[in-house]
Amino acid sequence: MRVLSPVEKMEAEEALKLHFPESLKVYGCLFNINRGKPHNLEVIVDSWPDFKAIVCKPKSKGTHDREGDFNIHSTYSRDQDSLKSLLGSPGVLDWSVYTLLAGVDLNYLSAVKDLAEQHRVPSRTQATMRVFMLENPAQLQAHESAPGCLIQPLRPEHAELVNSTWRYGGDANSYNSVLGYITHHPNLCVIPEDGPMGGGPVAWVLLYHHCALGLLHTLPQYRRRGYARTLVSRVSEMLLEKGYPVYCFVDETNHVSCRLFQSLGFIDKESYRAVWFEINERPVRS
To answer: Is the distance from CB of 61 to CB of 68 less than 8 angstroms?
Structure first.
């Protein structure tokens, strides 16, 4: 295995463009790393320069955010054997602690399960995702306007509201992640004229550290006004102009969100699903 240098990370980013959508999770990590965004990741490959498997893993453990809380390792591999070989290399995974492997190709999941069995640790699939990507501006369907509303970036003081509605939020670590997403990455929110006192946001969309669209949410009393559609369209246009990959992971059981992204021109690859896979039991937080 090999830990990539800054120059090699730039080269790896370019190489991963040839393998969308399977490589998007790791590509997104490298995209932000290579542009100086704050990160706590090292990038490991099975060989260089012709790598077949790559992992972005935390450099230091226990950071006080969701990424540290879940010990997230983002993976991409061109084949099952390469993935198994890299993850099984000494020092890549700490088999004694909870780890969330993010973006494992469903077709290669058996290799990861085999490794967990060999190390005699519990494991389970947390979620299986469809990956929707917008490849070029011509695919983006026209968005509906949001009359009587301001569309603008979130502010740091909105982090508490966003965290309180996030599926994976609600604690101090997830709050720190949300604050980081707002501070360092593009995002948008809707502030309607008839909104809450103080002009707070009622709908929003953010970017994770791996560039995927996420945390899309509309407060219940403001739904069915097209806010989600407007936000995804507007932020997608902005990302395309800045050269970002425009994509998202959607739980395959979330049919409403799947239909939304399809209606806006996002496409997914039917033969590819990304799995979030847990190794060991996650410690209970008090």
So the answer is: yes
- The pTM of the whole model exceeds 0.85: yes
Half-sphere exposure of 89 (CA within 13 A, CB side): 17
CB 258, CB 128: distance < 8 Å: no
How far does Cα 227 stand from its chain's mean position?
21
- Which residues face 192 on adjacent strands? 149
Per-position pLDDT tens, the chain of length 286? 999 999 999 999 999 999 999 999 999 999 999 999 978 899 999 999 999 999 999 998 778 888 988 999 999 999 999 999 999 999 999 999 999 999 999 999 999 999 999 999 999 999 999 999 998 788 887 666 777 889 999 999 999 999 999 998 889 999 999 999 999 999 999 998 876 656 799 999 999 999 999 999 999 999 999 999 999 999 999 999 999 999 999 999 999 999 999 999 999 999 999 999 999 998 876 5
Nearest CA to 154 among 184, 189, 179?
189
The overall longest dimension of the chain from CA atoms, in Å, is 59
Question: 57: which 2 tokens?
Answer: 């893993």
Contact between residue 162 and residue 204 where contact means Cβ atoms under 8 Å apart? yes
